[in-house]
From TrEMBL, chains A, B:
A biological process from GO: prolyl-tRNA aminoacylation
Alphabetical list of Gene3D superfamilies matching this protein: Anticodon-binding domain (3.40.50.800), Bira Bifunctional Protein, Domain 2 (3.30.930.10), YbaK/aminoacyl-tRNA synthetase-associated domain (3.90.960.10)
Annotated Pfam families: HGTP_anticodon, tRNA-synt_2b, tRNA_edit
Family: Belongs to the class-II aminoacyl-tRNA synthetase family. ProS type 1 subfamily.
Location of the Aminoacyl-transfer RNA synthetases class-II family profile domain: 33-465
EC number(s) reported in the record: 6.1.1.15
Enzyme type, top EC level: ligase
The keyword DNA repair is assigned to this record: no
Major localization class: cytoplasm
Domain notes: Consists of three domains: the N-terminal catalytic domain, the editing domain and the C-terminal anticodon-binding domain.
Native species: Melghiribacillus thermohalophilus
Single Gene Ontology MF annotation: transferase activity
Single GO cellular component term: cytosol
Protein name, per record: Proline--tRNA ligase
């Protein structure tokens, strides 16, 4: 392709609103343009990369036995009302009325459409399982669109749905798609982890998220430094074995701690390390009040609290509610003398505390030398805290480290949530009607493109891996006004094209400096520069990512190009 | 692909609302399903065909030097207000508000988005011309969605836009895209015509529509039986040379024609053929009243009237307005004694009328023996009628025939309509600022799929041409309970797959009759039936379209399949 004929509008400056590298570089290198907040156009280079990512996704999904289809973006509200999500999805679901004032949603996801379609056409176990996917534009009205393609309002997704007559069949498909996803992100050259995730409000069973490791990720992953264990931080169980110090128990003592509100303030005031204090937080777990006690250096994990109570809603109680039952505000709560209507649950670590401090349930006072068992009882000890770096890995191998991750994929055992609410059932071998068992599986395709740039860039621009690069070779004619350079470049261009090498030819009447800068920015893996030694038939060959370069005579160029591209 | 694993829900009955063959067959053969009125899901078979059509479009667009990109469906209203179309597009443009109450359009077309994008990034003739295209979902809220994929509310389009610094450059690109379109529809195997079309309200210059010939088409094409001339019926000029009869002029006479309203009634009442009467219709051309006179057997072409006056709006005057100036209602109008404020224009044929009848501008009366020149004068004679079958072709070769057509493509010289209203300008070689000159080019991709079925079907189902068929070979195991049939079919399936033959294998436990009926319905070009002679290694090979069939021994099967597929 001749660069002079292509729309590749490079910029020297970062766009004002672009906070992260992928956003900055994709705009500056002419891959994308913003049409409105969170809404982007893919220019020719961006579309090329998008297609390459899509093709890898498609190949692996096909291999996994999934069948491609295409559902509409316009979805009648009736379907969303059946599933109940018309009311629960919130303002992220974009809605509109047609000319006859019928309500529609703009597809944020397609569980409703596919479930309605399958229930109309499939009614027997003989036609199950079915695994269907599409690669399609999705719409979500993010409150705060940001980070370019990472959090947009209109974006490209691969979404898949499976239908089964048994959980064994679901498990089998789940594993196949899980493996397909691993293949996809491996082929894309991404440094990623499949992490155990929260199945959340959707009522499903297993779920994994595929996270690309990146500082700009919005999620924290806890992973083992010695195994492939990885989980979303809220999902990692704590398996630390605590030891009880043999320090003799001291006498309980109440002290004034005026104006000391936070754990850190109290610890400093009492002159002990954070871990020598107990932290007590009041939660509303559905309709019940629960005082959750952890060690001062630990954080309460409300997902674990929710799971402990199998509750629907967990939230911090207001200070007003808390004071009403406890007689004290947030800074002075503790597990001693708690009214009967309040559950006291504590993290395992609390059991091993000796001579620690805690709030006295009286504003401005704390107890010293508190000892569980002697000074207070709890309803239950449980794993209630977030895992921390340095904790042992839950799989028993290695130590937990933290990393930030960009969620690019998600596999999810839905179970019968949608098939029950939308009445998608099948007759089993005994002629009995059962709700279909479902799974859903997503990949953020345009987000993956941004994640690639987060992992593949340097200070001068993008450094694409070959299999997703918009072109394989960038051919630069440094000075097209010089006949010998122009002629040599043109002949190399024709040869490469003829040999099937995917080449972008910078034939523009621009200065050499502009061409080099644009080439670095665009990030094509291999660069051929036709410059001063064109007359002798010598050109420069350079690898974008490693910076490795060499002079090559045109007679050997094709061999060398093919060799380097294979590396 | 194994049919048992794929979602191909065939139906024996036509859907109640499906009036035409493509709609009926695509639903019955399991290619599409309706999600809402005018909104469809493409099931795996449908998606496969769609992709094949898209790929042919993509290849030819790339060859024509166009570059693929992807613009968003969500388009800020500000852009549509700049072009003026927010107000003029009407209810077909779907609109919505985001969570911040900002207005958006759902892309019905992308002139606004691309023009805004180009004006921000391109400002010099050095970077022109640019030709960009996308294959993308479009939204138009049709008042009456019908005919399945032919007139939907959400559909797949290929739209392209070009930007130029001169009309010569636009002409050159227009011709290239025109040729690309001819290649696309030829490769698709469609019987089509490129017809001269009305550039309408968009103020453009040249425009052609690509029409697939089909009885169910909503447009009428006038084409020559001896040349490649073809035009939308309203665009075809009439070049008929009339002759004046040498019959002596008779005396003007007024007769009562009580209750005779239409031309046909009057002609019958007066006992003369239709062409011996003059038809007079009152139009409002912008703010002017114009009486248009044609021969009784001709129809007024209001596009020609509009072009004659270079008017914005042409519509029939109301009977009330007409009576006010003419003193008579619709059935009794004529060109004799017309008030000065009314223009009288007549079609060329009227000039050659001798002793004809016309309305007397008095309710219930007509004149007989009317002769132009003697009895009335006209402001102007012009080509004002629709062409008719039997008229000479405007290019001087052959005679006009009519056909119905489905519009599948459109090429259009936009000129500077959008670049002027949206201020997309470039600096020319003299440093002078000019509005960019634009072209736009569309193909209805999903509509083309339906048009293919309109041309490729018989009474049993679809008869796909090979290059767009969802599979090339349909392998049927008639009775999978018989080991020898099952084994042979499986081994043929594996061989074909290994050899790269695109095969659908009907491995279902269904009766032979069901398999044959489904196979005919689905319409894969070549069928291999493994049946009773499986034990001897013989199978049946049948061409779906021609019905030609033969028995083949498995040893020769692959050779024969490849030979037949090449035909």
């Amino acid at each position: 392709m001749k660069q002079s004929e292509m729309l590749i509008p490079t910029l020297r400056e970062n766009p004002a609103d672009a906070e992260i590298k992928s956003h900055q570089l994709l705009v500056r290198a002419g891959y994308i343009r913003q049409t409105a907040s969170g809404i982007y156009s893919f220019l020719p280079l961006g579309k090329k990369v998008l297609k390459k990512v899509e093709e890898i996704v498609r190949e692996e999904m096909d291999k996994a036995g999934a069948h491609e289809m295409l559902m509409p973006a316009l979805q009648p509200s009736e379907l969303w009302k059946e599933s109940g999500r018309w009311d629960t999805f919130g303002p992220e679901l974009m809605r509109l009325n047609d000319r006859h004032q019928r309500e529609f949603a703009l597809g944020a996801t397609h569980e409703e459409v596919i479930t309605s379609l399958i229930r109309d056409d499939i009614n027997t176990y003989k036609k199950l399982p079915l695994v269907l996917y599409q690669i399609q534009t999705k719409f979500r009205d993010e409150k705060r669109p940001r980070f370019g393609l990472l959090r947009g309002r209109e974006f490209m997704m691969k979404d898949a749905y499976s239908f089964h007559d048994s959980y064994e069949s679901l498990d089998e498909t789940y594993e196949r798609i899980y493996n397909a996803y691993s293949n996809i992100f491996t082929r894309l050259g991404l440094n990623f982890r499949a992490v155990i995730a929260d199945s959340g409000a959707m009522g499903g069973k297993d779920t994994h998220e595929f996270m690309v490791l990146s500082e700009v990720g919005e999620d924290t992953i806890a992973y083992s430094d010695e195994s492939d264990y990885a989980a979303n931080i809220e999902m990692a169980p704590v398996v630390t074995e605590y030891e009880k110090s043999d320090e003799p128990l001291k006498e309980l003592e109440k002290v004034a701690t005026p104006d000391q509100k936070t754990m850190a303030e109290v610890a400093e005031f009492l002159n002990h390390p954070l871990e020598k204090g107990l932290k007590s937080l009041m939660f509303k777990v559905d309709d019940r009040l629960v005082l959750v006690v952890t060690r001062g250096d630990h954080e309460v994990n409300d997902v674990k609290l929710k799971n402990l109570y199998q509750a629907s809603v967990v939230e911090l109680a207001s200070e007003e509610e808390t004071r009403k039952v406890m007689g004290a505000g947030f800074g002075s709560l503790g597990p001693i003398h708690v009214p009967d209507e309040v559950d006291v649950v504590a993290d395992h670590a609390v059991k091993y505390a000796v001579n620690v401090s805690c709030g006295a349930n009286e504003d401005g006072y704390h107890f010293l030398n508190v000892n569980p068992g002697r000074d207070f009882e709890v309803t239950q000890y449980a794993d209630l805290r977030f895992i921390q770096e340095g904790d042992p890995s839950p799989d028993g191998r290695g130590t937990i480290q933290f990393a930030r991750g960009i969620e690019v994929g998600h596999v999810f055992k839905l179970g019968t949530v949608y098939s029950e609410s939308m009445k998608a059932s099948f007759l089993d071998q005994n002629g009995k009607s059962n709700p279909m068992i479902m799974g859903c599986y997503g990949i953020g395709v345009s987000r993956t493109l941004a994640a690639l740039v987060e992992q593949y860039h340097d200070e001068n621009g993008i450094t694409w891996p070959t299999h997703v690069a918009p072109f394989h070779v960038h051919l630069l004619a440094l000075n097209v006004n010089k006949e010998e350079q122009k002629n040599l470049a043109e002949s190399i261009y024709e040869t490469l094209k003829k040999e099937g090498v995917d080449v972008l030819y910078d034939d523009r009447k621009e200065r050499a400096g502009v061409k080099f800068a644009d080439s670095d920015l665009i990030g094509i893996p291999l660069r051929i520069t036709v410059g001063k030694r064109a007359g002798e038939g010598y050109v420069e060959l350079k690898q974008r990512k490693s910076g490795e370069q060499t002079e090559v005579h045109v007679s050997e160029l094709l061999t060398r190009v093919n060799k380097w591209l294979k590396q």
